[in-house]
């Protein structure tokens, strides 16, 4: 079992420290995207080196999540959180003073490693600090914090870039995490009592495999999906991950205990953020370019419209947590949230360049509500199925699925969108510009029409993926017909008392 929290532990301050860090880490994703034009102009760079300001962070963030989660169980969750936050702050500060694009990209890669440590250990800290209804509320707050960071990142970055320059964006991220670190002394240390040595071979194989897979996905649009490098990276990535699974099955002290993923309900809950990536994160990434490019809205106006989708992400998690604590099954809320993704994306096909805000308000609210209901509740449900000594490992795997899917799905989504636009405007180069919001080329009206048609097809495809995911996850979360141990088989929310694994 996990080491008992120390007497100096203060749960309220522990929650505040973790929440502040969880606001900042996703803010560094969405906020950095807004800073890219200013970075390119100031450092005289463009293309792949500039795009790696985003890619370097995403690749290391996804690749190191499982490693830092398992390390947290061995060396201590608070220690791993502090180390991750420290690396994140150092990387962000280095990015703020970077003299050139190469240093900036390296600093962002370092920040991604730190972000993995924060995310993997932060959830484990809450899982071992809180029990029962308090744990549900804590994870609901965690969902709101992550949603706030993702939603507020572009707005804050836009203001900072306009007022102080792009370097202030990364300076703010370093400052926020430094404030969180100031309260680390109030966080109790916990770790697994049995602490074998870290499976270094497994860690290297996993980081290399997932890194190659994510790298292949994010470089696909840049190099071309048919170029030799992209398939090679994807094959190498998949091959190394297969080797990793074989190594873990034979290891006495695995980096990932395969019994976790053999639990169909835990695995189903880990798939919830993957469906959320399809249904919500893709829209958060590509809808602004449509609103600005095809609909002709100003960036500020487009941001205001997106509040219809992002505001529920901030408000719904506490509501969902309260419903679970009042006896509403968590699996019901999760199923409803995923169904809202499917319905919202299908409904959003009403969007056209001339569509009013009122016409798209309904689907945007549905998608945002779906994200808000699943954020936090799904994570809390997954963690309640895991004994405390594996909390870091479980959180690391859960967030690997979340961040890894975001990097891969967003890249594939964009590639499909560009390909569909290309068939309508007759040029791959023009299609790439259109997907990025530049509709100045081609025949009058053709780029906007092509963008709209392509977006509709992608939205219907996304809705279908979300619908299939809803059915599959709901079936996996269904209560077993024969339960030998109610406490060990109930998803949180099956009853008001079933919030912790016995």
Separation of the first and last Cα atoms? 12 Å
Mean pLDDT: 84
Q: What is the top-level CATH class of the largest domain?
A: Mainly Alpha
- Main β-sheet description: none
Determine the fraction of residues in helical runs and give it as a percent range. Answer: over 70%
Radius of gyration: 22 Å
Instruction: List the secondary-structure elements in sequence, H or E.
Output: HHHHHHHHHHHHHHHHHHH
Count of discrete domains: 3
CATH H level, superfamily name of the largest domain: MFS general substrate transporter like domains
In the CATH hierarchy, the architecture of the largest domain is Up-down Bundle
* Principal-axes shape call: globular
Structural class: mainly alpha
Pfam family, one: MFS_1
Subcellular location: Cell membrane
Domain Major facilitator superfamily (MFS) profile: 14-481
Main location: membrane
């Amino acid at each position: 079992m996990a080491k008992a929290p120390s007497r100096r532990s203060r749960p309220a301050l522990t929650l505040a420290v973790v929440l502040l860090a969880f606001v900042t880490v996703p803010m560094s994703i969405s906020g950095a995207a807004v800073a890219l034009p200013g970075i390119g102009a100031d450092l005289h760079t463009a293309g792949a080196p500039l795009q790696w300001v985003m890619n370097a962070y995403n690749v290391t963030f996804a690749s190191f999540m499982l490693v830092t989660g398992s390390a947290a169980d061995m060396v201590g969750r608070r220690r791993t959180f502090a180390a991750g936050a420290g690396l994140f702050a150092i990387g962000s500060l280095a990015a703020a003073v970077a003299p050139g694009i190469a240093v900036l990209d390296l600093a962002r890669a370092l920040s991604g490693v730190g972000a993995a440590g924060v995310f993997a250990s932060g959830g484990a800290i809450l899982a071992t600090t809180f029990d029962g209804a308090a744990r549900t509320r804590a994870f609901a707050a965690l969902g709101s914090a992550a949603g706030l960071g993702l939603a507020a990142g572009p707005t804050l970055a836009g203001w900072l870039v306009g007022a102080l320059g792009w370097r202030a964006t990364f300076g703010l991220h370093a400052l926020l995490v430094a404030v969180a670190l100031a309260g680390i002394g109030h966080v109790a240390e916990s770790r697994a009592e049995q602490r074998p040595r870290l499976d270094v071979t497994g860690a290297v194989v996993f980081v290399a495999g997932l890194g190659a897979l994510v790298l292949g996905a994010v470089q696909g649009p840049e190099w071309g999906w048919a170029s030799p490098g992209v398939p090679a990276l994807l094959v190498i990535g998949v091959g190394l991950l297969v080797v990793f699974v074989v190594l873990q099955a034979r290891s006495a002290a695995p980096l990932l205990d395969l019994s976790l993923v053999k639990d169909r309900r835990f695995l189903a809950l880990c798939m919830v953020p993957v469906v959320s990536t399809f249904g919500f994160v893709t829209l958060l990434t590509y809808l602004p370019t449509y609103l600005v490019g095809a609909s002709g809205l100003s960036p500020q106006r487009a941001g205001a419209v997106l509040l219809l989708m992002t505001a529920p992400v901030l408000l719904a998690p506490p509501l969902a947590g309260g419903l679970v604590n009042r006896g509403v099954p968590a699996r019901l809320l999760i199923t409803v949230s995923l169904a809202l993704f499917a319905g919202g994306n299908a409904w959003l096909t009403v969007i056209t360049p001339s569509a009013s805000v009122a016409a798209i308000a309904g689907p945007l609210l549905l998608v945002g509500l779906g994200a808000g209901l699943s954020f936090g509740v799904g994570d809390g449900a997954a963690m309640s199925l895991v004994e405390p000594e594996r909390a870091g490992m479980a959180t690391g795997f859960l967030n690997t699925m979340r961040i890894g899917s975001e990097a891969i799905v967003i890249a594939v989504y964009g590639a499909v969108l560009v390909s569909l636009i290309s068939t309508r405007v007759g040029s791959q180069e023009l299609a790439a510009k259109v997907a990025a919001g530049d509709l100045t080329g081609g025949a009058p009206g053709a780029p906007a029409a092509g963008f709209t048609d392509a977006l509709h097809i992608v939205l219907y495809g996304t809705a279908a993926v979300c619908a299939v995911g809803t059915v599959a996850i709901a079936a996996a979360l269904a209560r077993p017909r024969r339960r030998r141990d109610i406490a060990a088989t109930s998803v949180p929310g099956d009853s008001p008392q079933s919030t912790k694994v016995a």
